Amino acid sequence: MEPCVLGSHGPSLSFPSICKPHRGTINSLQILARDAPFFSHEFSGREVTELSFESSALTIGGMKTIDFFKDGGFYILDAPGHAVGHVNALAGTATSQDGLDDTFIFLEADSYHLGSQLRPNPYTPFPSSIEISSFSHCPCPGELFERIHPLPVGGDPSVTPFQIIPEESVAINIKDAREVIRRIQAFDADGRVFVVNAHEWNYYDVLEVFPESANEWKTKGWKEKARWRVLEGFQGAVDLIFTDRT
């Protein structure tokens, strides 16, 4: 039977009868709770396999990892902070003869919601020039975005994300959630890894979605095209700077 990995939240779902559900570290009693996102009848007659990071000695990027199919093609990474049992995934998209040029897509689920919580950072600082096709001023000097960065005076806006997870966040553990983002930043800086999330609408036109294949993302330049798309939201502020200059 094909395995199905349940998401961290969402409405009740009906799984095909051939589906073998897998879930994260949520206590098994939670699926019986009245307000649970999944209901007990959805698991009736099916084998439910608990994913346990405690039984795996594997780590990738400092995150506890399960080699799901045991063939190096799909990894599930422990990503605490956002919700109980929250996980990320690392899916292989292309292999090379020596393995050094293998490529992956990192699925970060809800670890962050916008690229402005991920970049810029020490691994991926603002470049000297940023190309955003929809911008009226393109290419745009990276230093312009440093000028509109909300960072308090004294910090370095070139290596600090525009946003952080606030103390009032819905995340169940702020410290863990912020640490997971820090680890994802290292994946994002690796040219072999394309990081995508569940809420980044800015680069939908860059991706080729199902049923198309994502295996050629590196050749097609998806990562470079998508990386700074979140800055489109600052078009108005950049226009004001250019107006002041003239």
Q: Catalogue the unreliable spans.
A: 1-8, 23-33
User: Assembly state here?
Assistant: single chain
**Helix coverage percent:** 10-25%
C-alpha-based Rg, rounded? 20 Å
Please identify the structural class as seen in this structure: alpha/beta
Taken in chain order, the helices and strands follow as EEEEEEEEEEHHEHH
Count of helical segments? 4
Major β-sheet annotation: 6 strands, mixed
Principal-axes shape call: globular
Identify the strand order in the major beta sheet. Answer: 4-5-6-7-8-11
Mean of pLDDT: 83
The span between the termini is 65 Å
Strand tally is 11
Architecture overview:
The protein is globular. With 246 residues, the protein is an alpha/beta fold. Residues 1-8 and 23-33 have low confidence and may be disordered. It has 2 domains: 1-51, no CATH class; 54-246, no CATH class. The longest helix has 16 residues, at 174-189. The chain is 15% helix and 17% strand. Strand 5 (63-67) and strand 6 form a beta hairpin. A 6-stranded mixed sheet has the order 4-5-6-7-8-11, covered by helices on one side. Strands 1-2-3 form a 3-stranded parallel sheet, with no helix packed on it. It starts with a strand and ends with a helix. 24% of the residues are buried. InterPro entries: MBL_superfamily_lactonases (IPR051013). This is Metallo-beta-lactamase domain-containing protein. Belongs to the metallo-beta-lactamase superfamily. Keywords: Hydrolase, Metal-binding, Zinc. GO terms for molecular function: hydrolase activity; metal ion binding.
